[in-house]
Write a structure and sequence with these properties.
It contains four helices and four strands, in the order βαβαβαβα. It is about 40% helix and about 20% strand. The longest helix has 15 residues. Helix 1 links the parallel strand 1 and strand 2. The chain is globular and about 35 Å long.
């Protein structure tokens, strides 16, 4: 029932888990898609998750290496935004929640690459 799916792997997915909990507590129907493997990419599972979503937010501690995989898997079913951090600086769940709120209000993510 998630309308916004947050997508991540590794340490960013752990922060996203807290972000999803905070978003749900505020009434935003968010969900988490955590990729365990990078190859092969779990395209079918992500495509299924995207079927009911209105938007996706990909969060990476890189310049967006997984972003293209997500966009290809989703096949245009919903918009895909990106929030990236390079240099090993992990965003906080509060920071990511602000990005989620911005998307819910019709804005765009302000990535910090």
């Amino acid at each position: 029932g998630a309308e916004m799916i947050l997508v991540g792997y590794g340490i960013s997915s752990r922060v996203l888990r807290s972000t999803v909990d905070l978003a749900r507590a505020e009434g935003n129907p968010a969900g988490l898609f955590r990729s365990i493997t990078r190859w092969p990419y779990p395209s079918e599972a992500l495509r299924d998750a995207a079927a009911g979503a209105k938007q996706m937010l990909v969060v990476e501690l890189s310049n967006g290496q997984m972003l293209e995989d997500v966009r290809l898997a989703v096949e245009g079913r919903c918009p895909v935004e990106f929030y990236g951090r390079a240099g090993g600086i992990v965003p906080s769940h509060e920071e990511l929640l602000e990005q989620v709120k911005c998307l819910w209000e019709g804005g765009h993510v302000r990535s910090v690459i």
